[in-house]
Amino acid sequence: MIHPFQHHNHDQGPKPNALVRIEHLAITFDKPVLRDVSLDIHKGETVAVLGKSGTGKSVLLKLIVGLLTPDSGKIFFKDKEVTALGEFGLMDIRSDIGFLFQGAALFDSMTVGQNLDLFLVKHTDLPPKEREQKIAAALEMVQLQEAIDKMPSELSGGMKKRAGLARSIVIEPELMLYDEPTTGLDPVTASSIAELIVTLQQQLGIASLVVTHDLPTAFTVSDRAMVLNEGYAIFEGELKDLEKSEDAFLHEYLAASRLDRERHDRILRARERALAATQNPKAATKGTARGSETDVKVLT
Description:
With 300 residues, this protein is α/β, with parallel strands linked by helices. The chain has two domains: 20-248, Rossmann fold; 257-300. It has helices at 57-64, 87-94, 112-123, 128-141, 157-169, 187-204, 215-221, 239-244, 248-255, 258-279, 281-284, 289-299; strands at 20-28, 32-41, 46-50, 72-77, 80-81, 97-100, 175-179, 207-211, 224-229, 232-238. The strands form two sheets. The protein has a six-stranded mixed sheet with strand order 6-7-8-3-9-10, with helices on both faces. It has a four-stranded antiparallel sheet with strand order 2-1-4-5, with helices on one face. β9 (224-229) and β10 (232-238) form a beta hairpin. α3 runs parallel beside α5 (157-169). The model is unreliable at 1-15 and 284-300 (pLDDT under 50).
């Protein structure tokens, strides 16, 4: 199990050309949302975008896939300038990008398998048999094989996230964009989704950009982070340096996560004890009543 707030040090060799390159991006709605934001994302790495609600995190994702157009600045994906592409060019790059929306965005009238198949029909020319194989492989990767014939209304919140993730990876993207992947989930389910993101990154070797306000998730899944505040990128670098920063806003932002971190740790311990109880009931009864009492309060 990968512990939250643990930074994953990858081999720090020479970096290739960036898969995604964002240069001096700015966009304004009623007020400035992003101001002079720049970021590189390389193949095989995961970058978290952090910040309070309303700081432009989700807007950044929509700009990358061309759903919004910036007022100034440029975005490149595989050396193609996204900000200069027409609709057909955008459709082409979107076939290499997976996008996990906050609400999973499944079609309610279709089964899980049909949702994945529709995505394959839209983005590939594969025959039915090959599509079936890819659907089965994607669902197995997110541990949701048994849900292939279920309707979205039959799924829990965590299962919907997994189904949405399976739909995103079924096209074998080079880049995954996650928009608040753990929002609305209980801490235990959120932890399992974060671990799944890490597993998929390791197995598929894809680049990922994870927009989140959930610091345990960010520290679990990410190699680097960018923090947005009032439209500006006030930090961009390794997570270990984020915790060492003397910036006043970052101090406040990180301090606000400490209670969540402690609560998260207690829930993980409760889950581990529950698992141990199913495997060895006698050994599990040796835990203290006080510890169990605390965990029950946390879980309720």
